[in-house]
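Per your request, structure below.
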């Protein structure tokens, strides 16, 4: 029982002498702690972690070493770019016998945030924002990038114009021959017929990715999400009463947008973020397909 256990990754030579770009694990369950202003959460994450294997003769890496180092993230330490850089450096150091020079980590989780109702005091509910975070330390260069997904409602400007035309024509048909129309009659007509046509709106989502300051002590997730929701103006709601539903209907009616409008608004709101990428998707209620748009900085030399 005291005999040394064999380790073929050390004793055997690789059958084909070639380096490998990345080797590691995917889908590791891990508790993480995310701290944002007025929001500290312990969350369930799925982690992917890999290192490079440049030594062609080495049969395999030591996955248990990576696992144990990764497990440190689940011990209550707040997730931060500086902490992630330290973790990646430790992973590289743990594989010096494999001549490893680079490491990378991906975390996927959902950030839970409590959001208040639009109008009703004391009413709120939880909203989940999917997050994908990529951190890498490649030949000494550290990069950290986060992607968040935020849901919102979008009402089609074209559909709204067509709906208004139907209501206008119906109003003229009802009152066009009358030399004078009483306010009460107009109000009664609108109460019954203002929804002769309604513009189509749909649940929509924005996927936004930005680079994170490598020296920061926070990922800035909530600030990024708030910027997205303020840009679109109609974030989906959690708990509502009738007053909140009415307020949301008013927001949609006063905030018409095509998918192109949404992408441009969000891009403009991200001017303070590095290397922003925006992908918006309107899950059409008119069509069985989606409307989509992307926004990203143009390559050097393309503008102008």
């Amino acid at each position: 029982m005291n005999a040394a256990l064999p380790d073929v990754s050390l004793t055997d030579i690789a059958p084909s002498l070639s380096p490998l770009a990345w080797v590691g694990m995917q889908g590791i369950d891990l508790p993480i702690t995310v701290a944002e202003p007025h929001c500290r959460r312990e969350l369930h994450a799925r982690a992917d972690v890999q290192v490079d294997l440049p030594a062609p003769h080495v049969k395999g890496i030591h996955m248990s070493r990576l696992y144990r180092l990764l497990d440190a993230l689940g011990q209550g330490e707040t997730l931060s770019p500086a902490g992630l850089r330290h973790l990646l450096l430790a992973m590289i150091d743990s594989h010096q016998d494999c001549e490893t020079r680079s490491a990378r980590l991906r975390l996927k989780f959902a950030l839970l945030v409590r959001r208040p109702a639009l109008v009703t005091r004391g009413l709120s509910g939880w909203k989940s924002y999917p997050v994908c975070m990529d951190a890498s330390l490649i030949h000494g260069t550290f990069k950290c990038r986060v992607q968040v997904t935020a849901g919102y409602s979008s009402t089609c400007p074209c559909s709204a114009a067509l709906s208004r035309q139907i209501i206008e024509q119906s109003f003229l048909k009802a009152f066009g021959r009358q030399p004078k129309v009483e306010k009460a009659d107009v109000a009664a007509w609108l109460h019954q017929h203002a929804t002769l046509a309604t513009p189509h709106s749909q649940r929509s989502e924005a996927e936004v990715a930005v680079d994170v300051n490598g020296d920061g002590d926070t990922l800035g997730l909530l600030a990024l999400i708030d910027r997205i929701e303020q840009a679109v103006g109609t974030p989906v709601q959690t708990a509502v009463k009738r007053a909140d539903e009415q307020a949301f209907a008013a927001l949609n009616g006063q905030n018409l947008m095509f998918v192109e409008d949404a992408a441009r608004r969000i891009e403009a709101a991200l001017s303070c973020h590095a290397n922003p990428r925006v992908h918006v998707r309107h899950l059409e209620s008119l069509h069985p397909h989606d409307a989509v748009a992307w926004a990203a900085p143009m390559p050097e030399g393309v503008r102008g």
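The longest helix spans residues 157-175.

Regards,
D.
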